[in-house]
Amino acid sequence: MDIPVILVGILSAAALLLPALDIALRRASRTFSAYFATFVIAISLGIVLLSAVGVIPLTESVAPNLMRNDLMGLFFSMVVLSVALLVSASSIDYMKNEHNISIYYSLLLFTSLGMVILSFAVDFLMIFVAWELMGIPTFILTGYRKKDLASNEAAVKFFILGALATGILLYGISIMYGLTGSTNLPAVAAALSKLSPDMLPMAAFSVIMLIAGLGLKLSIVPFHMWIPDAYEGAPTTVSALLSAGTKKAGFVAGVRILAVAFPLLKLDLTLTLAIIALATMTLGNLAALTQKSITRLLAYSSIAQAGYLLVGIAVLPSTNLGLTGLLYHSFNHAIMQGLAFLAAAIVAVRLSKTTLSSYEGLSKTMPLTSFSLTIALLGLAGMPPLSGFWSKLVLFTAAVEGDLTWLAFAGLLNSALSLGYYGLIIKRMYVDEPSETIQVREPAGFTILLLAAAAVIILTGIYPAPIYDFAQRAVLALTP
Amino acid sequence: MKRAAHIMVDSLFLVLALLTIGASILALESRELVYGAVSLAVSLLGIAGLFILLEATFVAMLQVIVFVGAISVLIIFVVMLVRREKWVALPAGGEVFGGLLIAILLVAVVGYLAVNSGISSTLPPSYAPPSYTQIGIQILTDYWFALEILGLVLAAAVIGALTMAKIEGNEP
Prior knowledge:
The structure holds two protein chains of two kinds.
Chain A: H1 3-25, H2 29-52, H3 71-94, H4 101-120, H5 124-142, H6 149-180, H7 185-193, H8 200-218, H9 226-233, H10 236-264, H11 270-289, H12 294-314, H13 321-351, H14 362-365, H15 367-381, H16 387-401, H17 405-430, H18 444-462, H19 465-476
Chain B: H1 2-29, H2 33-53, H3 57-81, H4 95-116, H5 132-140, H6 144-165
């Protein structure tokens, strides 16, 4: 079956239905829309998973020049829909007292749909349209708390820089179209292989514009400035979505574009990308060390993780292993980062504080939340039995194979560095004494969700084969 | 004859480009919001002129109808309605020079690349612009899926904009 079209039908119908139901049902729709949206995303994820294991065969797209139904798309759909499910389910509790709750879920569904389409798009035009469908709702979600000044600031920053990045992306696309006469990625690749050498500078310029345009969402240095403010100001569930969801969708667009353009252009971008990757992970980790608030810390850690992911693209010309690692780490990072942000969200709701010092002795007041947050942080740091270790291992092995041993070494050092601030949070939670012992109730649904995500991290760490296989097959299917 | 046509097109391009850029700067810098809105309309009109110069009359027409016509008028309406709002002018410091420097650098790089690549030598001698029918057929056949999704983008943007504009609780 044509999975993306089915998902378009399901998700867009639900996204359009929710605001209408809100008008019809008034008050009664509050909890309904939350459960409905979660249910719809769960169904979509179910369809994607069934297709991934082969129960629902994947057929060619109805618009084959715009979309390519392949395992790559399925893999990233799985990643982004898992994140959307985590965000949606946790918002049931987190956003309970907000206004316009059905709009929140409607926009969440629209963003999820944009991310899913972006995973399958193989035409610059389609990538751009999906990019917008993914981006526009997130601007509004970031500024969702209209009376909260931090939320307003975050939304304005994100919106202005997002619009600028979209313009830059479009500029890159238009130059590429001018050079190749097509927006379809395989056709672009074919034209690029015949490109006359005196056009190479323009092609390089176009690729740089594309990287810069995508880079804003990918949160790579030097396009990262908005990240900490936006993640801190936005509702924390939305930060989880931005960090774990839209960023991954940005990476799939980057992979599709660069995997096509790279091998054919006689350009050596490996060193450039390797330096960007190094700068991204180092800056992210160093800045995270000095943060006082958990959301800012996680934001910088998210930047650092983007650096690890970028290693996979940097080694692209020499080895496919990097791409496999990128996909694999995308999945692991999405779950870990999502879990970390959501745990921070529930702590922020219960203690109404986001400072790191409020985590002192948290294991006594919120034991289950502390436990799942610990699992997520250890995973992010790359502790051996957890899933984050394996994907980092694949990425760094790919770096060694791609003759970038120094980058692998830098990545290892960075991982050790990151253990510094991750470990500090864990120490605060388990070793330090709480300043005040107030018994805090952990909401049951939320806690089950956190524990489920933690279980995924542990289980895919102990038995990593299925996800790794899936990533490997997806990379093999990328090039026909 | 051909040379004269070239000079005419080049000078037209120069005038339109200067108009567009000048009006854009004015739109950003003018103290009175109405002037800004009008400058924006002029700048968008200049872009429409550039499209005509490229023989993309369809895009030029849409540019005039949608951007110059609808959006600029809408902005002027909004300015009219929220007139009482106070607009705080932030004193600009060194950022202006920094921005200018970056802009000049970017233009220099793009210009250098464009001049040094083969772009100037590979202009197609004659090329028929696509007809409106062709554009319509393309949109509804090859790109129908993108069109559908664009509809959803519009829906999402409208829902979001309405939410942002909605008055909640005891807002003034």
